[in-house]
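Researcher: We're teaching a course module on how sequence relates to structure. For the next exercise, students receive a sequence and then see the predicted structure as C-alpha coordinates, so they can try to spot secondary structure elements on their own. Here is the exercise chain.
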Amino acid sequence: MHLTCSEGYVVTGGRGAVQTLTMSGTASGYEVTPLAAGTVAWFTPGTIHRLVNEGDLRITVLMQNSGLPEAGDAVLTLPPQYLTDPETYAAATVIPADAPEAEQERVARARRDLALEGYEALRSADGPEALAAFHRAAAALVRPRLAEWRARWERGARAAATATGAQLDRLEQGDFSHLADAAVRAEQPSAYGKFGMCGRLDVYKGQ
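Model: And here is the predicted structure for the students to work with:
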Protein backbone atom coordinates (compact mmCIF):
# COMPACT_ATOMS: atom_id res chain seq x y z
CA MET A 1 0.00 0.00 0.00
CA HIS A 2 1.33 3.43 -0.98
CA LEU A 3 0.82 6.36 1.37
CA THR A 4 1.37 9.29 -1.00
CA CYS A 5 1.67 7.85 -4.52
CA SER A 6 -0.83 6.70 -7.11
CA GLU A 7 0.21 3.68 -9.18
CA GLY A 8 -0.84 2.80 -12.71
CA TYR A 9 -0.54 -0.24 -14.98
CA VAL A 10 -0.33 -0.12 -18.77
CA VAL A 11 -0.92 -3.70 -19.90
CA THR A 12 0.97 -4.66 -23.05
CA GLY A 13 0.38 -8.41 -23.13
CA GLY A 14 -1.00 -11.50 -21.42
CA ARG A 15 -3.70 -11.48 -18.80
CA GLY A 16 -4.05 -11.11 -15.08
CA ALA A 17 -5.79 -9.09 -12.42
CA VAL A 18 -5.16 -6.66 -9.64
CA GLN A 19 -6.90 -7.47 -6.37
CA THR A 20 -7.57 -4.43 -4.18
CA LEU A 21 -8.78 -3.62 -0.69
CA THR A 22 -10.10 -0.15 0.14
CA MET A 23 -12.51 1.50 2.54
CA SER A 24 -14.83 2.19 -0.40
CA GLY A 25 -16.16 0.10 -3.27
CA THR A 26 -17.93 -3.12 -2.37
CA ALA A 27 -19.27 -3.78 1.10
CA SER A 28 -16.11 -5.74 1.96
CA GLY A 29 -13.80 -3.28 0.21
CA TYR A 30 -12.45 -6.13 -1.96
CA GLU A 31 -12.46 -5.79 -5.73
CA VAL A 32 -10.82 -7.52 -8.68
CA THR A 33 -9.89 -5.54 -11.80
CA PRO A 34 -9.13 -7.76 -14.84
CA LEU A 35 -6.00 -6.90 -16.81
CA ALA A 36 -5.54 -7.61 -20.53
CA ALA A 37 -3.58 -6.04 -23.36
CA GLY A 38 -4.67 -2.43 -23.75
CA THR A 39 -5.97 -2.02 -20.19
CA VAL A 40 -4.85 1.03 -18.27
CA ALA A 41 -5.68 0.68 -14.57
CA TRP A 42 -4.64 2.88 -11.66
CA PHE A 43 -5.34 3.41 -8.00
CA THR A 44 -4.73 6.05 -5.36
CA PRO A 45 -2.88 6.03 -2.02
CA GLY A 46 -4.41 3.79 0.62
CA THR A 47 -5.28 1.02 -1.86
CA ILE A 48 -3.92 -2.35 -0.81
CA HIS A 49 -3.06 -4.09 -4.06
CA ARG A 50 -1.98 -7.54 -5.13
CA LEU A 51 -1.01 -8.19 -8.75
CA VAL A 52 -1.84 -11.65 -10.10
CA ASN A 53 -0.28 -13.06 -13.28
CA GLU A 54 -2.77 -15.37 -15.01
CA GLY A 55 -0.71 -15.96 -18.14
CA ASP A 56 2.34 -14.11 -19.53
CA LEU A 57 1.19 -10.79 -18.07
CA ARG A 58 3.32 -7.89 -19.25
CA ILE A 59 2.81 -4.41 -17.84
CA THR A 60 4.55 -1.08 -17.59
CA VAL A 61 4.15 0.30 -14.09
CA LEU A 62 3.91 4.06 -13.62
CA MET A 63 4.24 5.68 -10.19
CA GLN A 64 4.09 9.24 -8.96
CA ASN A 65 6.54 11.46 -7.17
CA SER A 66 10.11 10.99 -8.37
CA GLY A 67 10.91 7.53 -7.04
CA LEU A 68 9.12 7.80 -3.71
CA PRO A 69 7.64 4.28 -4.00
CA GLU A 70 11.13 2.73 -4.03
CA ALA A 71 12.25 5.21 -1.35
CA GLY A 72 9.84 3.72 1.15
CA ASP A 73 6.39 5.05 0.20
CA ALA A 74 4.90 1.61 0.47
CA VAL A 75 4.15 -0.61 3.43
CA LEU A 76 3.77 -4.35 2.93
CA THR A 77 0.72 -6.00 4.49
CA LEU A 78 2.69 -7.96 7.06
CA PRO A 79 0.85 -9.40 10.08
CA PRO A 80 0.35 -6.82 12.88
CA GLN A 81 3.25 -8.06 15.04
CA TYR A 82 5.69 -6.89 12.33
CA LEU A 83 4.18 -3.38 12.13
CA THR A 84 4.84 -2.25 15.69
CA ASP A 85 7.90 -0.05 14.96
CA PRO A 86 10.29 0.76 12.07
CA GLU A 87 13.04 -1.54 13.37
CA THR A 88 10.79 -4.62 13.58
CA TYR A 89 9.35 -3.89 10.15
CA ALA A 90 12.80 -3.37 8.62
CA ALA A 91 14.09 -6.64 10.08
CA ALA A 92 11.35 -8.47 8.18
CA THR A 93 11.53 -6.54 4.91
CA VAL A 94 14.98 -5.09 4.18
CA ILE A 95 16.98 -7.08 1.65
CA PRO A 96 20.70 -6.88 2.58
CA ALA A 97 22.51 -5.25 -0.32
CA ASP A 98 25.82 -7.00 0.40
CA ALA A 99 24.37 -10.51 0.75
CA PRO A 100 24.78 -13.17 -1.96
CA GLU A 101 21.98 -13.15 -4.52
CA ALA A 102 20.57 -16.45 -3.23
CA GLU A 103 20.16 -14.92 0.23
CA GLN A 104 18.59 -11.78 -1.23
CA GLU A 105 16.09 -13.94 -3.09
CA ARG A 106 15.32 -15.92 0.07
CA VAL A 107 14.58 -12.72 1.99
CA ALA A 108 12.45 -11.36 -0.87
CA ARG A 109 10.35 -14.53 -0.97
CA ALA A 110 10.02 -14.63 2.82
CA ARG A 111 8.73 -11.06 3.00
CA ARG A 112 6.35 -11.78 0.10
CA ASP A 113 4.94 -14.74 2.00
CA LEU A 114 4.51 -12.64 5.15
CA ALA A 115 2.77 -9.95 3.12
CA LEU A 116 0.39 -12.53 1.64
CA GLU A 117 -0.36 -13.83 5.14
CA GLY A 118 -1.28 -10.36 6.32
CA TYR A 119 -3.19 -9.61 3.13
CA GLU A 120 -5.36 -12.70 3.48
CA ALA A 121 -6.16 -11.73 7.07
CA LEU A 122 -7.21 -8.23 5.97
CA ARG A 123 -9.25 -9.62 3.09
CA SER A 124 -11.14 -12.05 5.32
CA ALA A 125 -11.71 -9.54 8.15
CA ASP A 126 -15.30 -8.71 9.04
CA GLY A 127 -15.74 -4.96 8.66
CA PRO A 128 -13.30 -2.09 8.06
CA GLU A 129 -11.63 -2.09 11.49
CA ALA A 130 -8.68 -4.28 10.45
CA LEU A 131 -7.94 -2.13 7.40
CA ALA A 132 -8.18 1.04 9.49
CA ALA A 133 -5.71 -0.47 11.97
CA PHE A 134 -3.32 -1.27 9.14
CA HIS A 135 -3.60 2.32 7.86
CA ARG A 136 -2.71 3.64 11.35
CA ALA A 137 0.26 1.29 11.68
CA ALA A 138 1.54 2.14 8.19
CA ALA A 139 1.34 5.89 8.83
CA ALA A 140 3.24 5.50 12.10
CA LEU A 141 5.94 3.40 10.42
CA VAL A 142 6.74 5.98 7.76
CA ARG A 143 6.56 9.10 9.96
CA PRO A 144 10.36 9.18 10.60
CA ARG A 145 10.99 9.34 6.83
CA LEU A 146 8.59 12.15 5.91
CA ALA A 147 11.23 14.90 5.83
CA GLU A 148 13.35 12.79 3.45
CA TRP A 149 10.31 12.15 1.25
CA ARG A 150 9.38 15.83 1.18
CA ALA A 151 12.90 16.77 0.06
CA ARG A 152 12.76 14.20 -2.77
CA TRP A 153 9.34 15.44 -3.86
CA GLU A 154 10.47 19.08 -3.81
CA ARG A 155 13.55 18.27 -5.93
CA GLY A 156 11.55 16.19 -8.40
CA ALA A 157 7.79 16.24 -8.94
CA ARG A 158 7.16 19.65 -7.37
CA ALA A 159 10.07 21.28 -9.19
CA ALA A 160 8.85 19.87 -12.52
CA ALA A 161 5.29 21.14 -11.95
CA THR A 162 6.61 24.55 -10.88
CA ALA A 163 8.73 24.78 -14.03
CA THR A 164 5.69 24.00 -16.18
CA GLY A 165 3.73 26.75 -14.42
CA ALA A 166 6.51 29.24 -15.09
CA GLN A 167 6.60 28.23 -18.78
CA LEU A 168 2.83 28.73 -19.07
CA ASP A 169 3.19 32.17 -17.48
CA ARG A 170 5.89 33.15 -19.95
CA LEU A 171 3.94 31.87 -22.95
CA GLU A 172 0.91 33.91 -21.88
CA GLN A 173 3.20 36.98 -21.95
CA GLY A 174 4.49 36.10 -25.41
CA ASP A 175 7.85 34.95 -24.04
CA PHE A 176 8.96 31.68 -25.62
CA SER A 177 12.68 32.03 -24.86
CA HIS A 178 12.76 28.75 -22.89
CA LEU A 179 12.29 26.88 -26.17
CA ALA A 180 15.86 27.83 -27.10
CA ASP A 181 17.08 25.71 -24.18
CA ALA A 182 15.63 22.50 -25.62
CA ALA A 183 17.82 19.45 -24.94
CA VAL A 184 17.86 15.70 -25.46
CA ARG A 185 19.09 13.33 -22.76
CA ALA A 186 19.50 9.58 -22.42
CA GLU A 187 20.60 7.37 -19.57
CA GLN A 188 21.50 3.73 -19.05
CA PRO A 189 20.84 1.88 -15.79
CA SER A 190 23.56 2.02 -13.16
CA ALA A 191 22.47 -1.40 -11.85
CA TYR A 192 20.46 -4.25 -13.37
CA GLY A 193 18.08 -6.71 -11.75
CA LYS A 194 18.13 -5.22 -8.26
CA PHE A 195 15.47 -6.51 -5.86
CA GLY A 196 12.92 -3.71 -5.54
CA MET A 197 9.74 -3.17 -3.59
CA CYS A 198 7.72 -5.65 -5.63
CA GLY A 199 10.11 -7.34 -8.03
CA ARG A 200 13.32 -6.92 -9.97
CA LEU A 201 14.21 -3.49 -11.30
CA ASP A 202 16.94 -1.68 -13.15
CA VAL A 203 18.21 1.36 -11.27
CA TYR A 204 18.69 4.78 -12.82
CA LYS A 205 20.37 7.83 -11.33
CA GLY A 206 18.29 9.31 -8.51
CA GLN A 207 16.32 6.13 -7.70
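Model: If you want an answer key for the exercise: The chain is about 35% helix and 25% strand. Residues 8 and 62 are 5 Å apart (CA to CA).
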